[in-house]
Each structure stands twice: as structure tokens, then as C-alpha cells.
Amino acid sequence: MSILKVNTIQDKGGNTLLVSDGAGTISSGGLMTMTPAFHAKRTSGQTGVTDNTITKVQCDVEVFDSNSCYDNSTNYRFTPTLAGKYYIYGAVLGANDAFSNSILNQVFAVIYKNGSQYTRNEWAFSTNYLRYVTPTVASVIDFNGSTDYVELYGQVDSTDGSAVQFYGSTGAEYTIFGGYRIIGA
Fold first, then answer.
1. How far is CA 143 from its chain centroid?
2. Domain limits of the chain?
3. Distance CA 171, CA 157 (A)
4. Bigger pLDDT: 3 vs 25
5. Residue 111 CB coordination number (10 Å)
6. Which of 70, 150, 154, 157 is 20 to 30 A away from residue 81, measured at CA?
7. For 127-175, how does the pLDDT look when each residue is reduced to its tens digit (9 = 90+)?
């Protein structure tokens, strides 16, 4: 019987794969984690959204941001610093400002990569107008680890051109944006 006693296992390039604390707890050294990862939300309505116009969603509160790769105050974008495949998701609760009357004709949630539409989900109601709806959108996206970025956009089309918004709340999460690196892909 052979026993190998080590606290750290590294690959040939010196990258840490596994670390033991000496008490039986093993953690990965970064390459085996699903990071960078983030989850952000709106805690109030994003008003001033122009009816039937694609608009960047400003998820301004970070629930978590493992590697500080999400900008929640200026560009509202995720720029991961590690190349790989990422699962990116978003949800946009579109509504008229007053949350009254069933006047919504359609609502979109769109993920943009590097300034261009990448994945889109559209809810169109024809003549069955709604008061509010939350389309979700998700995709697996390749990132180069330096300049690639993603942003969440939305569009709310009301039947009468009234004021619309992306709804947010301090309680439940309605409008969200997030993602994480997929290990093994």
C-alpha cells in the first residue's frame, strides 16, 4: 500500500489544481471552479425607457461578483478575465410605469456580445395585451478572457406609447443578469 501526502497538487505549468488544508477539506485551486461568476439585479424600476426601443438593462446591484468582472455602475457589462465557455442568463420584467391597464404588445430580453445581438427571447401578445411579463434569455457563450463582454438589453412595446420600465424591487428579484464559467466544457 502506498500513501501520497501533499497539501497542493499542481499541473506541469505550476497551476494549482487541488489544495488540502491538512484537516480533510479539499478545495480547487481556481482552474476547477466555475468562476468568474456574477449575479446582479435591479432594486428599483429603470424608468425613462423609451417605448418600443431596445435599451441596455442597468442591473445596478451585485448579489455577488467573484472576480470583479461585472461593472454595475457605468457599462453594466460582464467582461470575464479567464477564457472559456460561460453560461449567461438574464430576465427582464417589462411593464408600463403605472403597472396599470393591459397595454403591452411585446417584450424582449436580449443578450449582446461585444455590441451585437447574440441571443434573443421575445414575447408578443398580438391583441391579448398584458400588464407585465418577464421574458428570460440564456446562452452558452465563448469568451477570450480579455476583451469579450456581454450586456443585457430589453425592449417594451406598449400599445399606446405610454411610459415603460424594466421593473426592479428590493425584495424579490425581477430583472436580473448573471453568468458563470463552465468547467470541463
1. 14
2. 1-32, 34-181
3. 26
4. 3
5. 22
6. 154
7. 788 888 899 999 999 999 999 999 999 999 988 888 889 999 998 999 9
Residue pointed to by grid coordinates 425592449: 155
- Which of 2.60.40.1250, 3.40.225.10, 2.60.40.10, 2.60.120.40 is the CATH number of 34-181? 2.60.120.40
Q: Using CA of residue 93, residue 98, residue 99, residue 105, what is the dihedral sign? A: negative
Closest by CA to 177, choosing from 13, 38, 46, 66, is 38
**What pLDDT is recorded for position 102?**
80
In one-letter notation, the amino acid at residue 83 is A
Per the listing, cell 424582449 goes with 108
Hunting for cell 482552474 — which residue is that?
Answer: 31
